[in-house]
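Lab notebook, bench 4. The sequencing result for the construct came back, and we need a structural model before the next group meeting so we can plan mutations. Quick request posted to the team channel:

Model the 3D structure of this chain.
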Amino acid sequence: MPRQLTRDSLDPVVHYLRVMVVALSQPTHLRRLQQLLVVIFGLWALVNLVSAFWAVWPGASTQAQDADIINPVTVVQASRQRVDVDLDSMLGLGLFGDPTNESAAPELATPELKGDRDGIEQGARETRLDLKLTGILASSEDGLGTVIIAAKGAQANYSVGDKLPAAGSVSLAKVMAKQVVIDNNGTYELLKLFDKDEFSDVAERELARTAKDSEKPSNVRVSDEEAIALASDYRAQLYKNPDALRDLVRIAAVRENGGLRGYRLSPGRDAEQFAQLGFQRGDIVTAINGYSLADPSNTVRLYQLMRDTTDATFEVERSGTMITVSISLTDIQ
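Done. Here's the predicted structure in token form:
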């Protein structure tokens, strides 16, 4: 039977507990107990903090344990033994469709130009169509070839049988060395490569134009009273209201090789006055009264000079030729 607890058996325990309580109630023992509890709590908190840190931060990589491979990879080395393949047997299986009999394959039809071209140029008159033969790229003895024909400002290549850019049924019928035959709605007509007389006329016109340009004066002198009065008025406006010059001329700087070359002129609101002073649209003024406009420091000198000068001489590049435009200012008081 279990031993029953009696009062006499509990008295020593109770007495021991009372002694411990009395001992702990002493200030010295109580302070040591508090310090002990603080140390224990600090150690517990430190252990939990370290555990939480390593739970978040990845630890050092561990070596994977050797495990049994269920399905090991088997490396098979390629054999260098030659294997013969029977291609005829494979083709007979019809894997790529039924084999084609080369003898039964249809031949591509080669287009043939119909009609006999021999002598079709005989008796043909020169065409009046707006076509111009500008070049012959290729020609053969049987009249075949490729040419360049211009029409309506555009040109293209044409071969025998091609339709030409003209109204109706017009096609190229034959190519020869210096002319072609065209089929104009059933009538053969000639289109020549060049006309000697026509080229002679063009050359003569070009020589006449060159001679006429060479006769143009290299110096322009503006001295009539109306032009002098006009120049005097604009010079006065230059020193009172420079914006007023916009009615006469527009100026744009022209640069070359990274530097200033001069100023390009174009007429302002009144083009008639611009021309009256001897200028033309596109003139490039490079110097005034000997002062080069390529040097920016000359701008101040020219501004002071033009106030009292009696003549203004402009060095102008016009259509690639250097000329001078002189304007008299003798009536300025």
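Residues 102-114, 196-200 have pLDDT under 50 and may be disordered.
Will bring this to the meeting.
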